[in-house]
C-alpha cells in the first residue's frame, strides 16, 4: 500500500538498546519509560484530520516497537514502507537525539522522500533542524493539522516552492532556509479530533497492524486515555515550556484555544465504548472560565458516565468546585503539582500560588466530596530551592497527611526537574534572572547531553542554590525520606518499601561508579560502561517510587472484543465513504477542467 504520510515516533536515545544509561527517576511520574516511548497526542489528530480528507496515514511507534522486542529491526521495517512523506515528532526535548538519528536512517533508506519535523521543541529549534541534510521541512506551531494537509497535497501535486503554507520552515532550490510567517494560530480545537482515538482504532483494522500505533509499553495492560481541553495556558510558571509566556514566545499564541464542553463529552462517550480505564482531563478546565466549567459538568451529568475521570489542578480550588464534580461525576481523582512546601517559592514560580493552609483546604474539600485518589507531586531543582528545602517537602507531606486525618486516598511523589529546562520557558530564556546556570543552549547541546551515561550528566542546568550533585543527592535523599513516611502511615506495604529502598541504594552506587568511569580514558570508559549497562536496567524504571503507586485500580480495562470490533468496522465504513467522496470530487474536478479545455 502506498501511504500519503507515515508518522514515526523515535526513542529518546536511538541506540538505547546498546548504550549504558542510568536514566534514574526522570520518567518515574509519567506513563512511559526512560525511552519516552509515549508519542504526543498531536500525531493522532494530524492522522485523523488527513484521513478525513481522503489521505492514507500510518502511525508507527518505533520507540515502543524497539522497547517491546529487542530483536525488532528498525531498518527492515522502514525500508518496506512506500509513502509520499515521513513525519517525525520532536515535541519533547529528550527526543533530540533519537528523532534526528531516526531521520538519518529514513533518509538513507528513502533519499527522495521528504521528511517533516513538528512539535513544540521542533518549533523552537526550527532553524537548527532545517540545517540537517536529512530534514526537508519543519512545521511550526501547536495546531498544524490543516497545514500538514496543505503540505502533503503540495508534495503530491506540485513542484513549486511552498511559500504560501503558513508556519513552514523549508529550504529553497539553492539550499537557503525560508521561514514562512507563523500566522496559523486557531483559537478553537473543535474541528480536530484530539486525541484521535477514532483514527487509532480504525487504523488497526485498516492497516492490519495492532502493535505499530500502541501509545506506550504496557498500554494493553493499563490503557490510560486522555482528552485535551485546551492549547496554550493562562499560567505563567517559570520552568514550564507550556506556560502562557512560552506559548506566546514559541507558537505566537496570544490566548487560550479550547475544545468545547460539547466536544469533550462526545470524546468521553466514545472512549467509554472501548475502554474502562481512567480518562485524564488534560489541563485545569477552570482556565476557560466559570461558564465553560458549568457547561462541561452540566453535559456530563446528562450522560451515563462509567469511567473514572482524573482532573488537574493548577491553583487553589474552593468547595463549590468539588461539589460540582461530585454532582456530575460518579468517580473521580485529582492530580496537583505543588512543587514545593515553600509558599514564597511557589509564588515566585507561579504554580499553586496560595498559602499552605489553602492547599490543605483544597485537599480537604476534595476528600469531603468523594474524591477517590489525590496525587500530589513535589519537584527538585526549581528556582530559589536549596538542598534543605527539598527535604522539608516530606515534612509538609506529613503535615498534610495529619491535617487530612491520615486519609489513605492521598498519594505523595517527588521527582527532579530533569533532564532539561524546557525551551521557551522564562527560566530557559532568562536563566540568570530566575536563578539558573544553563549547560545546554543549542539543539546539538541537548542531543549530546541525553546520551550521557547518567542522569546527573544529562542535566542541562544548575541553580544558584544547587549544583548537579546537589540536585541528584537531594532527589534521592528526599525519596528515601518520603519512602519512610509512606511506610509509617501504611501508604505502601513493607515489600514496596524495601524494593524502593534497594533501587535507591543501587542508583547511588551506580552514580558513584559512573563518576569514577567518567575519569577514565575514552576506550577504557566505553568498555567499563558496557559492562555496567545490563546491571543498571532494573533501576531505570520507577527508581524512587513503587511501580503501582501512580496507577488506578481498574477491574475491566477494555470493553469486550465484540464492542471494539464493532467500533472498528463502523469507523472503516465511514472511512470508505470519505474515500469515495474524495474520489468523486477529484473526478468531478477533472471532468470540469476537461470540459473547459
If you had to describe this structure to a student in words, what would you say it looks like?
- The protein is built from 22 helices and 19 strands.
- It has 597 residues and is of the alpha/beta class.
- The chain starts with a strand and ends with a helix.
- The model has no long low-confidence stretch (mean pLDDT 91).
Brief account:
With 597 residues, the chain is α/β, with parallel strands linked by helices. The chain has 22 helices and 19 strands.
Q: Helices, strands, pairings?
A:
Blueprint: E1 2-3, E2 5-9, H1 42-52, E3 57-61, H2 62-68, H3 74-79, E4 82-83, E5 86-89, H4 96-109, E6 115-118, H5 120-124, H6 126-129, E7 137-139, H7 145-157, E8 168-171, E9 177-179, H8 197-206, E10 225-228, E11 230-231, H9 244-251, E12 257-258, H10 261-271, E13 279-282, H11 290-300, E14 309-313, H12 319-328, E15 332-339, H13 343-349, H14 356-368, E16 374-380, H15 387-403, E17 410-416, H16 426-429, E18 436-438, H17 443-449, H18 455-458, E19 461-463, H19 468-488, H20 494-517, H21 522-536, H22 561-596
Parallel strand pairs: 1-4, 2-3, 2-5, 5-6, 6-7, 10-13, 13-14, 14-15, 15-16, 16-17
Antiparallel strand pairs: 7-8, 8-9, 11-12, 18-19
Helix pairs in contact: 1-7, 1-8, 8-22, 10-11, 11-12, 15-19, 19-20, 20-21
Structural descriptors:
alpha/beta, 43% helix, globular
